[in-house]
Amino acid sequence: LPGRPGRDLRQVRLAARERCGYHVGRLPYLDIAAMKNEKLTTDEYDALEQIRRGASHDRVNACIGRNAKRLSGIKLIKYERNGGKVELTPKGQEVLFLRRCVTTLRALAADPAAEVAADVQLFLGKKSHITPLAEGGFALTDKGRESLADIESQA
Questions:
Q1: Side-chain half-sphere of 111: how many Cα atoms within 13 Å?
Q2: With 0-12 CB in 10 A as exposed, 13-18 as middle and 19+ as buried, what is 40?
Q3: Nearest by Cα to 105 from 129, 77, 72
Q4: Bridge partner list, 78
């Protein structure tokens, strides 16, 4: 660089890379640690659910369009290469399933006769969060109530 004796172009480039975070393998504006515990809005959950159900046509609706960039950035959806259709990633499917589990726990806390989907029933039963009642329906176990209280405290 002219005017700065003793520094060659290689040293200047290395200094610039260190300033912008390039040396640790990430872009300066992308903070992976901050995205780990991202809270999703109701609108984003709705967009994920609409993607899961599938579209009857090739175009995406307004809800998906509003949220696609962020959901793609946190790896919950992806675009197909040939045609640009939007799909859920396995992480996106997991997020939707866990939301269904939490919704079911809340419904069972209010009403033991609430409807429970088969896959959610199997999962919550294996995790000992619910037990079947003799007269029908399900009851929350102590572990289920503790989990629900923990979820509510984080929300």
A1: 6
A2: middle
A3: 129
A4: 87
HSE-CB of 149 using CA atoms within 13 angstroms: 7
| Other beta carbons within 10 Å of 82 | 5
| pTM of the entire predicted model | 0.70
Query: Which residue is listed with tokens 């033991």?
Result: 112
3-class SS string, the chain: CCCCCCCCHHHHHHHHHHHHCHHHCCCCCCCHHHHCCCCCCHHHHHHHHHHHHCCCCCCCCHHHHHHHHHHHHCCCEEECCCCCCEEECHHHHHHHHHHHHHHHHHHHHHCCCCCCCHHHHHHHHHCCCEEECCCCCEEECHHHHHHHHHHHHHC
CA distance 100 to 34: 24
Residue 155 CA from chain centroid, whole number: 15
Largest CA distance in the chain: 86
What tens digit of pLDDT does each residue of 17-38 get?
655 544 444 433 333 333 445 7
Nearest to 95 by CA among 61, 113, 112, 70: 70
